[in-house]
Every structure is written in structure tokens, then in C-alpha cells.
Design goal:
Two copies of one chain form a homodimer.
Chain A: H1 9-20, E1 26-27, H2 39-49, H3 65-75, E2 82-85, H4 87-101, E3 107-112, H5 117-124, E4 128-133, H6 142-148, E5 153-159, H7 171-183, E6 187-191, E7 214-219, E8 232-235, H8 241-252, H9 257-269, H10 272-295, E9 299-300, E10 308-312, H11 320-329, E11 332-333, E12 335-336, E13 348-351, H12 357-368
Parallel strand pairs in A: 1-11, 3-4, 3-5, 5-6, 6-7
Antiparallel strand pairs in A: 2-8, 7-8, 9-10, 10-13, 12-13
Helix pairs in contact in A: 2-9, 4-5, 4-8, 10-12
GO molecular function (chains A, B): pyridoxal phosphate binding; transaminase activity
InterPro entries (chains A, B): Aminotransferase_I/II_large, AspAT/PAT-like, NHTrfase_class1_PyrdxlP-BS, PyrdxlP-dep_Trfase, PyrdxlP-dep_Trfase_major
Keywords (chains A, B): Aminotransferase, Pyridoxal phosphate, Transferase
Chain lengths: 369, 369
Amino acid sequence: MGDDAYDEPLFFQVMQYAARADRDVVGMVSGDPDWEPPQALRDGLREYADADSDQFQYPPSEGLRELRAEIAERRNVDPARVVVTNGAGEANYLTMARAMERGSGSEFLLTDPVYPYYPGKATMLGGEATKVPVLESGDPDVAAMREAASPETAAILVNTPNNPTGAVYDRETVEALHDVAAENDALLLVDEVYDHFDFSGDFESALTLDSDRVLVTSGYSKSMAITGFRVGYAVFPEELVPEAKTRHMLVNVATNRPGQVAVLRALRETSPDYYEGTRDMLRERIGSFTDALDAAGAAYTSPRGAFYVLARFEDFPGTLSNVETLIDEAGVAGMPGEAFGDAYADWIRFALVTPRADEAASRLADYFA
Amino acid sequence: MGDDAYDEPLFFQVMQYAARADRDVVGMVSGDPDWEPPQALRDGLREYADADSDQFQYPPSEGLRELRAEIAERRNVDPARVVVTNGAGEANYLTMARAMERGSGSEFLLTDPVYPYYPGKATMLGGEATKVPVLESGDPDVAAMREAASPETAAILVNTPNNPTGAVYDRETVEALHDVAAENDALLLVDEVYDHFDFSGDFESALTLDSDRVLVTSGYSKSMAITGFRVGYAVFPEELVPEAKTRHMLVNVATNRPGQVAVLRALRETSPDYYEGTRDMLRERIGSFTDALDAAGAAYTSPRGAFYVLARFEDFPGTLSNVETLIDEAGVAGMPGEAFGDAYADWIRFALVTPRADEAASRLADYFA
């Protein structure tokens, strides 16, 4: 495996450095929600603990029938197209493997900046990753993507709402990416795990394109604040389902049932208010955090979706070493921009998953004052 | 992917056929325990449902520190060698992938009969599967394995206590297999998921060989009667750990935390009586089931480990079609021997995971009388 496969542990490296620090540090490295999961999720788990022991045995490999039905209804697709996975992480692995198996190229076109697992997975699967810098808005540069695409392209893989830029791709952009994929007999893989964190109102799922080239992944790690439960899913075009199911079965047998049962209950019983409440809380956090960045004289992104802010401080590029300096001297831990590619190497990513985001912001303002 | 990858759904095919049958059927197809999990496991899950929401977030990718420590203590290895996986299924996938990545061959030497996931995984990973018929005792034919091994051999993969033969390999056999692996610069992968189901007293873990060629997998699906929880592990030689961890991270990010927490509690609080009680119950079931097979004039295996009995009825080979006939006409569902390879194609496997094993046995005795 290439170096790319080892990018992600940088997250852990930074978190460990922060944990060892000789002072109080506000952690804004990893995207673990700090808010409460839906009450019904806890209820589901509590009830499950007392279920008959036959409920503790293998669920269907592709996921509990009722859960797939709930997912399919929300996504407006045939339940037969849904595979429940060990988080969106496995879902992305399955869609990328499926793209490789078509025998139509082995290159993945990615954006720069990019979530580092994608190039890591590409390399692990024996493919190559090509990163195309995004526009200043954080949106994909469709013209540059078209330029980079070739018959060697197995898939274009994007993430919207986007980590780390906060962009929410509009429908025209996704359609245009789909066209580029189609022109090169490639697939379009869209990771929509932040689908519940759209502040712009512009998010539209790629599933609405209703194309047999579109594979969509998502999960409940973020929307239900349960990154440790590992329940996600992939929606495949019908003819790509069987081999994806086989790989899922041969790698994992099935996704854990306690998690599936709890998520099913939460899907059924959680009102839209829960998600709206989370968005409101995040909007507020983002607002006061970026206000403080203004005070610090930093450039920054104002996320239209997801919950990350990229900030650029003058003469202070987003290297691992500068991130460590910020931990020691300001007491704030972010993620080096260089972890996401070259395009935002000067930036530092802050995950707004702490009630102390305000405190972090004023520490940054003081430090850079 | 080759045909092998599609063997396992035969399990589901048979179970679905049994479910659709127009009569009462005793199900003995799949290896889902029908007994109670340890009480502490339910306690662990119940307590977890009320834990702080930060306990619902990503565990370390390689598994909870305390869980790895408990596993390492029981297996008498360094915790750094343990990776907690999504069941023994993912553990086997990781060890097989690791064997391929060494660049020392791409062939897996397996036994015939064999658990059908192994050849399926080999094919998925781009390797080949070679099956070597076992001895009449169900033990591996070491001489034939040596004959079949070559520099093309990436690994020898065995399962003890064995599904489906019920053999428990003695230490000399495992040592001899290790020698064959070493002679061909291959690894020895040992799936010990039935380690708690040794009725013979002869089981010894391959980890006692203390060799840097030995990779051992196991899990809690069977020993704690929780096939749906997906908590297993692999123990790697130290120098093979890093890439295995990376693959685990890139495929699954981590193993679900509710399951890890519940298993950890159960490991800590469950007395040996629980496991001894299960073995006693199974010994009794096996005894009365095989007595009835005697009455039916069938040949059968008397398992020294695991919980499967292979039976051969005169002029009634273990084809899918005959298995369906038994469902319709005798009301007993087993697994076609042909699913496990050629060596036991005349046999039918019965999983003793139903309190109605006696009933099934007398139905078989009546049918073949």
C-alpha cells in the first residue's frame, strides 16, 4: 500500500499529541458529534438488551428488512437497491470496489481537498487516486474534472455536503459530474453522510438523477451522533447490487444487529425537530467561531453544510508542526490542512463538535492578536 | 468473482426453502446458537444504553483498549498483536488479505470439506483456492497438504475445532501444517472460532506455537451465542500488524462499540460454568441425535468439537435437491454436503442449534426406516 493509505492516522497522531499536552486543550480534530443521540435510539438499545436470544443472531447479510424498507422509503428507491453496511466507511469501500470490478478503468477522480480515506481506499483496492483542485467556493471544478477524466477513470467520487470545505453542491454541478462520468464509462460515487447538515437548503441527493451510474452512500454516524455504532448504507443501481452484496457478505457477513435495531427505532420515532435542533445549534457555533476568526484576522470558510471550518492564519500554514504549536501555545487542536491534499495545505480544519468552540475561538483570537 | 464466492448463499437458499415449506420443519441449517448469551452481556448492553453520548462515538480503530487487553491475557499474547474485528468473518478476511500482500504466492491451501466462505474470500482477493481432502478422521492429510504446497502457496488456512467435520486437530498436526507452511514461505492461518466447543480436551491454540508465521482468528459469535453482534478478533505476528490495521481502518473504520462494550463486560464477569454448561447441553444433544441416526441406519460423524454432525443416508447423497426432499418429506432442514466440497458430497450437515434436535432425529429415523 502507498503512503496515502497512512494519511488518516494523522487524525489519531494529532489527537494523541493533544492528549499528552501539558495544558487544557479544546479538541476540534475528529468529527465525533458531542451532542445527544435521539432518545428513541437509547430506547431501542435498552429494549434490545432484553430481547429473545434469537434476536441476537445473524441479521440478513444485506441488513434487516425493516431497516432497508425505512431507508428506501426516505431515499425514494427500491429496497432491493439498499445494502446496510458497517458505517458509511464500509459503504464507500463497497462502492469503490464495485467501480474497480467493472473493468472500466482503475483511477478515482477526487477533489482536492479530499477526505483522506478516499485515496487510502483507492490505493488499497489497487487503484490510483487523482485529485483535482476545487474552485474557490469549495465546489468541484467540473471543467478541470472533465480535463482529467479518461477511459482510465473508474469513478468520480465526491462528498456533499463536503468535508472539509463545507460546500453543498447544487444539482447542476452533480449533473455535470454525472455527464463527465458517463462520457468516460465511469461511475459517479456520492458520499452523502452529511445529508442532515445542510444549512443552505440547496442539498439534493444524487439519487434524484435516477441514473444507473450513480451510487450513493450515507449513514447514521453523524445525523444520530453515533459514530461508534457503525450503521450506514449504500444504494446501488439494480444491476450492481449482487456483487456488492457478495463482497459485503465475504468481508463482514453482516452489519451488527444491536446498531441496526437501535437505528431502526430512532428512524421511526425521531421527529424532524431533532435534526433541526442540531442544525440550529451548529449554525450558532459556526457563527460565533467565525466571528472570533474575524477578530483573529484569519481567512476562513463559512460552511453551507457539514460542520467543519477551514481557517488560514497569516504566515502560519496548516502543517502538522504548526498544528502542534497551536496545541501547545493556544490550547486548540485542529487538523492540518495538508492532510487533505495540496489545495488547502495553508489551512487548518476545525471540527465544530465541542461546546467549547467559543472558548477555542477566543484562544485563537488571543494567540494571533 | 468466481462461482465459489456464491457458495454461501446456499445457506440462505435452503433456509428460505424451509421457511416456505408447507409443514413444520426443524431448522438445522445455519450455525446460530439457540441458547442464552451470558447474563453479563445483557447487563453490559443495558448499562451502555444509558452511557454518556461520548461513549457512543468511534472506539479506537483496532478495538477498545480494555477489550484487547482481556483478549491478549486469555490468549497469552502481547495486546499490540490483537485487532478487534467485525466478527471472525472480517478477521479471516484480514488474515487472508495479509497473506496475499506478502507477495509470496496467491494460493490458499484449504481442506475438503471446507467452510465455503474461505474459497469465496480467496477468489474475491484475487487468489486461488486448492482443496485437499481430509483423512477419514476428519483431520487434515498433512502428507497430501505437503504434496499440494508450492512456492505459489500464500497460506494454509484451517479451522479447528472444525466445521463441518467436528475434528479437533492435535498439536502435532498443527505443528506439521506449520512446517509445510514454513517450507514454502507461506503463512498458517488458523480459525479457532469454535475454541470454546472442544469436547475432546485435545484442543490447543496454534498461538502456542509462538511462530511469526501463525495468524489466529476467533470471535464471540458462537461462544457467547451472539452471531449478530459481530465482535471477533485476529492475532497477528508483530511485524504483520500495521498493514492489517490499515486495511481494517480503510474497510470498516472500527468494530461497533455497543458489541465491544457488551462482550468486554461478559468476558470479565462470566464464569467458566457458562461455557461448561453449553458444552454439556451440546454433548447430550449430539448423543441423542446420533443415537437416532443409528436407528435410521445412517453413517455419521461424532464431533469432537464444534456443533455439527455429518450424516450419510444410503442412496441419498447430500445434494441440494435431496436436502429439499428431506425438508418436504421428513420436516428436517440440513445443509447439503456438496456445499463444502467434493469429499463429503454424499453427506448432509446438521447444526445442533435447536432444542428440537431429538424431534429431528426421530423424524429422520422414521423417514429412512
